Amino acid sequence: MALAISMLAFLLPGPRGPLLLYAVTLVAMPIAGVGRAIRQGLFICLPLWFFLFLLHGVLGGGPTFGVGPFALSRDGAELALTQAGRFGAIITVSLGFYHSFDASRFLNAAAAKRWPLHLSYLFVATLHAVPAFLARTASILEAQRARGLRFGGGPVARARAVLPLTLPLILGALAEVDERTHALDMRGVASTRLRTPLMAPKDSVLDRVVRWLLWLTVGAAVVWRMVG
Amino acid sequence: MDSRNHRPAWPARGAAVWGPPILMELPSSVSARLLALIPPAVAINVAIGRIVAELHLPVYLDAVGTVLVSALAGPVAGIVTGLIGQVLTAFISGYIWLAFAPIQVIVALLAAGAAARAGFRGVPASLAWGGLVGLIGGVASAAISYVAFKGVTSGGVTAVTTILVSLGLGLAPAVTVSSLLTDVADKAITFLIVGVALRSLPVRMRGRYPLGQRAVRR
Questions:
Q1: I need a labelling partner for B45 at 20 to 30 A (CA). Which of A64, B29, B130, B154 fits?
Q2: What is the ipTM of this complex?
Q3: Nearest-CB residue to A190 (from B2, B32, B80)
Q4: What pTM value is reported for the model?
Q5: Is B114 exposed, middle or buried (0-12, 13-18, 19+ CB in 10 A)?
């Protein structure tokens, strides 16, 4: 669903199509129980919207029209609205999918679909590694600050602090690879043999119908844009 | 200690296809070592963003893990790292960022090429290779930014683009100049960090990655 909406955001003509799609995602997210995706999406979108308005609306060329104290480019404003709608719809729906993602359910579903375990493992292990590394980064920052490393000053002084902060992170990660290799070897994760999932998630008729309808809509939008 | 821990990253070599051998040898299976190496490398790509934000530097350094894995285990492992990192970024902050996946592929291929030619043997070599990768990546990045994003991507680069447009430059040249400036600096620092990290590794640990040995040979 998230992929289909992302494709539709680029296929539907702007600015109405992407803006309408964004409005649909704003309604759909709370219904799907992932309303926080809207707030987080806004945090990511606001700076992008600001620069779109500035770069295309204020600094854009061609005929202009007045909005309060600004003289906005007509073409630029239309382009900015189209891109703003695309960013809003795609970012919100991606975050909605992220918040509804269940790693163990995904592993079982991937095994049921006979995907190689190491591919699904790589994705899920990475997803779990990121918070751990962010926490480790915070510790390194605090530790180096306590040792007197200066984070301020000019760009050169700040650039000098990069190595003392990144090297402990990289070397620590590489030092752990041996231990992890051993653990993964013991569990046979690198094996190419297929696994049997104990609890394969059910792919209901409704799920399949919704998926097919979305892909049909994407296909119809492609044909419409090519013909129209 | 279990001898399996000392296996190189790729356990067996598969079919070699056209092109320089070091770049085009495909693995026939994935080793546990690679499965252990790739997730932390992707996490490093993300976590270094926190350090950059703390230091208020106008670069991303979001390819350190990709370059590291490419230099240690070759281009295919580097591409997998870069692509998984890009998918993860798209997953947690929007599928629009998937458009930049080709940049990760370019960086991984060039980083493996640099490693094969001892491109991490010292600071000047690392900076030169990083600058070259930044130049190529910057051109590709500018094309993606202009076509898919109409010049508006992340804060720092877009701010430079906006300044250049306000000075009278067209959108396409402004996007190209800002992407090149940022990418050359970004990749030069990235290669410098990875070079120092590779040279700091104990020989015994680096010896488990034959390409890593070659990357720092003098």
A1: B29
A2: 0.81
A3: B32
A4: 0.83
A5: buried
